[in-house]
Specification:
By secondary structure, this protein is mainly alpha-helical. It has one domain. A hairpin with a 2-residue loop joins β1 and β2. α1 crosses α4, α5 crosses α6 and α5 crosses α7.
Length: 152
């Protein structure tokens, strides 16, 4: 891919993200009490309430995560090679050039009906049932990052 194609992909992702609404995010939060801005967190955590409010206010991140994950091919089983929510958040951040919370990825997966399981080594993260073939490749990320450096 060349820079104009990367820019087009980024613009498409941003445009597609607008299909997801605050109502979608609110529904996820209503139905899933353990998803917060930082990931999976339980009510007894001292920052739980603040992290829930932070996620509710993170509509743009949620929308981008939905647009990105909607392009991922779903798998029947959990792929523990590249599907960790925390890893996916970083892929999207690097490609699009804006911060994405781990909880935004998990909320988006929930909204889209993508199955997931908790990561036993860090239960704030989840493993997603998505294919190892991702819509944003390492080469696309590197090119997007280099384009931003040239703009600075």
């Amino acid at each position: 891919m060349n820079p104009p194609e990367i820019k087009q992909q980024q613009d498409n992702l941003i445009r597609f993200s607008k299909l997801y609404t605050q109502q979608d995010l609110d529904m996820v939060l209503l139905q899933n009490k353990d998803i917060t801005y930082v990931g999976i967190q339980f009510k007894n955590h001292p920052l739980y309430a603040k992290c829930r409010e932070d996620l509710k206010a993170a509509l743009k991140e949620f929308q981008l995560a939905c647009a990105y994950l909607s392009q991922c091919k779903r798998s029947k089983s959990i792929n523990k090679n590249n599907s960790l929510s925390y890893w996916q958040k970083h892929r999207l951040e690097k490609f699009i050039g804006t911060y994405i919370a781990n909880g935004s990825i998990i909320a988006a997966a929930t909204c889209l009906g993508i199955k997931y399981v908790a990561d036993k080594s860090n239960p704030m993260n989840v493993w997603l049932a998505i294919s190892k073939d991702l819509p944003v490749t390492d080469d696309m990320i590197q090119l997007a990052m280099s384009m931003r450096r040239k703009e600075d």
